[in-house]
Amino acid sequence: MLAPRMPVYRRRSSLWGCTMLLVASAVGAQASSTRAFTGLTLIDGTDGPPVQGATVLVRDGRIVAAGPSRGVTIPAGAERIVLDGKTAIPGLINAHGHVNEPTDLRTYAAYGVTTVFSLGGEGPPVFAARREQESSPALDRARVFVAGPVLNPATPAEARTQVAGVKGQNVDIVKIRVDDNLGTTQKMTPEVYRAVIDEAHRLGLRVAAHLFYLADAKSLIAAGADLVAHSVRDTDVDDELIAALKARGVCVSPTLMREVSTFVYESTPDFFADPFFLAHANKEWVRTLQEPARQQAMRTSTSAQRYKAALEVAKRNVKRLADAGVPIAMGTDTGPTGRFQGYFELMELELMGQAGLTPRQVLASATRDAARCMKLERELGTLEPGKWADFVVLDANPLDDIRNFRRISAVYVAGNRVPR
Ligand SMILES: [Zn+2]
What we know:
This protein is of the alpha/beta class. Helices cover 38% and strands 18% of the residues. Zinc ion binds next to loops.
C-alpha cells in the first residue's frame, strides 16, 4: 500500500502553498466549508490502484487530501460524510456535448457528468453559467465550457472575421464542421478551414473539428486542428492517421452515441422503459420519438441505415486508436433532440467497452484524459490535492464492470451534493 501513497503526499506538499493561499483568502470561513468523505474505496483517476478505506478532505470546494484514511487528518469541526462500502471516481468529463440552457447542467450532473465541453450553439445564459462557476465553492451542477457559434465561413477572409468574433465572445475553443452529410451538402474547403485554424492559433484559441471521412481527418490534422470531435466513420483508420495524431498529441472524441441516436428510434428503444433514464429524460422527446410515423420514417431513412453501419466502423476505430496510444476524450454529442444528456454518456462508456476498451481505459477517457485533451487538467480530471472536488460515489467498482458506472449513489461538485 505504500507505493500509491507516496505520490499523493508528494503532490500534496508541492501544492501546499496554493492551499495556504486558499485558506488565507477565505477570511471568516465556516468550519462547515470543510468536509471529510470517509470509508470509501478511492479510484483517484491516476494510474495507481484503488485505495480502500480512503478519506477525501475538501475545503472550499477543493481537495486538500485524498488517500488512505490513516494519512489524512480531519480538522475539528469538519463535516463528516460516511461512505463506507462506496467507491468514488472523478466526475465524468464530456469533451463533446451541447448545452442548450443552464438547466441541462443539472441533468448532466444527475448522471455523474460533472463537466461538459459544449461544442457549439450556446446562448448567453450558458456563457453566464460558465462565468458563475469560475471561483464558486457553492456550485452543485455540471461545469460548462463553450465554443459559441459553430463557424461556417465561405472564404478565408470570412474565416478570419468569424474567428475574431468568437474570440471577442471569449470562447474556450473554436468549432468547425468539415462534412458533406453523406454527400448531401457542401463541405468546407481546405483553404477555408486552414484560415480558421491559422487565425484561431494566432489568437491563442484551439480548434475542434467535426468530421466524418478519413481523408478529411488527415488534412485537418496537417492543417493544425487540435481536437477530432467525432470518430472517423467512412473507413478504418490507418497508420498514417495514427502517426499524425500521436505526433501532435491530438485527441479523438468518439461520440458513438451520436451514431446510435440516428437510427435507434426506428422502434422504441429498451432504455425508454428504464426508470433511471426516465428520471431526468426530456419528456417531450420521449413522447415524440415514440410516434409511429416518426419511427417509420427512421426505419426507411437511407442516412439512418448508413450511420448504423458507420457506428461499427467507429467502434473498430476507437479500439485501434486507443490501443495505439492516441488519447481518447469521452464525448457523445448529446444536447440536440433525441440525444439525452447524462444517460447517453453512461451508454457511451458501455459502447466503448463493447468496442474492446478495458474499464480502466474507459474511465481514463472520461476523466483524466478528457481533462488533458480539453486543457482542464490543472483543475479537473483526477482526485488529487488542489483540484476541484468533483466526484461520483458508486455502489460498486466500475473497474470490475463498466455497467457499474450506472450505480450512482451520489454526485458531488466542488464537494457539494448534487440534487438528483
Ligand atoms: Zn456536436
